[in-house]
Amino acid sequence: MSLDRATMDERVPRDFETLRTTILERRESLPKRIAQIAAHALDNPDDIAFGTAASIAASAGVQPSTLIRFAQQLGFDGFTSLQQVFRERLRERNSSYDERLQALRAKAEGGAGHRAIFDGFVAAASTSLNDISRTLDDAHLEDAISLLAKAETIYVLAKRRSYPVASYIAYALGKLKIRNQLIESAAGLNAEMIGFATPADAVIAISFSPYAPATIEEARSISEQGVPIVAITDSSFSPLAQFAKVWFEVAEADFAGFRSLSATMALAMALTVGVGEKRRDTGRKRKA
Amino acid sequence: MSLDRATMDERVPRDFETLRTTILERRESLPKRIAQIAAHALDNPDDIAFGTAASIAASAGVQPSTLIRFAQQLGFDGFTSLQQVFRERLRERNSSYDERLQALRAKAEGGAGHRAIFDGFVAAASTSLNDISRTLDDAHLEDAISLLAKAETIYVLAKRRSYPVASYIAYALGKLKIRNQLIESAAGLNAEMIGFATPADAVIAISFSPYAPATIEEARSISEQGVPIVAITDSSFSPLAQFAKVWFEVAEADFAGFRSLSATMALAMALTVGVGEKRRDTGRKRKA
DNA sequence: CCTGGAATGGAATGTCTGCCTCATTTTTTA
DNA sequence: TAAAAAATGAGGCAGACATTCCATTCCAGG
Questions:
Q1: Does the pTM exceed 0.70?
Q2: Is A266 in Cβ contact with B265 (below 8 Å)?
Q3: Predicted pLDDT at A98
């Protein structure tokens, strides 16, 4: 009993990723019905893991025998061995994101020592990132970037808890050679600084509850001068929202009374780099 | 055809969590062999999902018929329906952390528009958090917190990219009523400020490659005064590490040339709140 | 110590499984 | 266009499967 060389030389994919890559590589060269199964398999891996050859074949619209031929073509000795790979994928895949977070939170609440505190902040940051990734509105992002990209100078306005974000935005804008002005409260010259802003400029204002009165006041004053504002805040009732042309609602999780900044940071970076890219593109177009 | 009332009234657990709870509730009242299976099922849910009645029974050390009786006792009409619940659990559990990150990264690389940039930063932040969660040394954390908790004044030293973290630490320490001094470069009075520090104080210094020369220089000068330093940096070759009593290696992922700050932030928060807690505890002990 | 009923073990059963084979169709090659 | 090769469909078969049934064991109550 001897298998032909081609079959023997072929390494049988033992893990899902390899299998996936193999299938995608050969996609073009596969017979019609086999390709049909290949597509179905990659689209519904869970069905392959749990179904029977007959049920899978039916839902892929082919004969069971074709399914077996598909498996054999990949180097498996039958459908069952192929199925093992799909099952292993479910079995070995890490605990879900939620389970991981739950574990972290459990450690943070029940755990002793300072490691628990650390875990709590990591969990809060992860949760925040997860939330914003789900809820961020693409259109708002585009609008905000367009608005900021047109500005001559970008003013960055934030106090207290939000100030670290503002300082990072200022740093990043500087690195991208985008003219910007961080409005700090240090020297008490904010009113004068704000006075320089014109409708050709733009503002990134960041404030979360409890809103720093100074931030609100400055935002009002600068919006009355006709300067468009992009706001990052935490609810639609935020006083910042009413002054803003575009505003983002960012819900940050908190731990030990300190809210995370990770989601706000990610958004801030996206805005900054987005503006940088947009300016480069526009610049190129103008030159051309 | 009529089922007896007891069976009819009993709601069949349709999801894994309900099933789990039900089993744990009845644990005491279950016959020996059935309990044996119950324990095995909750300990090896994946095996129940994939195995056959015979294989599961064997690995639990019972007869297949007992397995079926177990399922029926829970209100299922057979082993197969019970198995569905275990399979559903695997099917519905969210895609793994890695898959989620890969998807984000894929979108960030392949995707168009500014959403891709945002996804990239979220992915970088998640990766960083994940990494630090794995690699952070609990002992270092304890050491650093002890060191900082004893300090009369905590000096916070960071420039450029790390400055946002420093400003957040300063903000948080302030909220916790812990005396601290942020060393900014603004007024050029850093040397004088540093001169005030004594060995009874402590420093949190943050710097990543390319290390801001000023930060290094100030760290050196302050350590020569005998002030202990807790450093957050990115490699053991960092010039900061040599001056530090305790140092943390934080590997931040980057996107579009900007490194994430999320891991550093989480660590910074943990240090800050950890010091706050330690001080409260010590205060209580002293009073008592 | 007996006894009735529940719990358990193990073999019997009928269904369904994966896989093979072979006839038929489609595609490729000459 | 004819012949050869590959791909496909469909039925059949051996084995594995979940389940049932019945004999045996265990255990509480008298």
A1: yes
A2: no
A3: 66
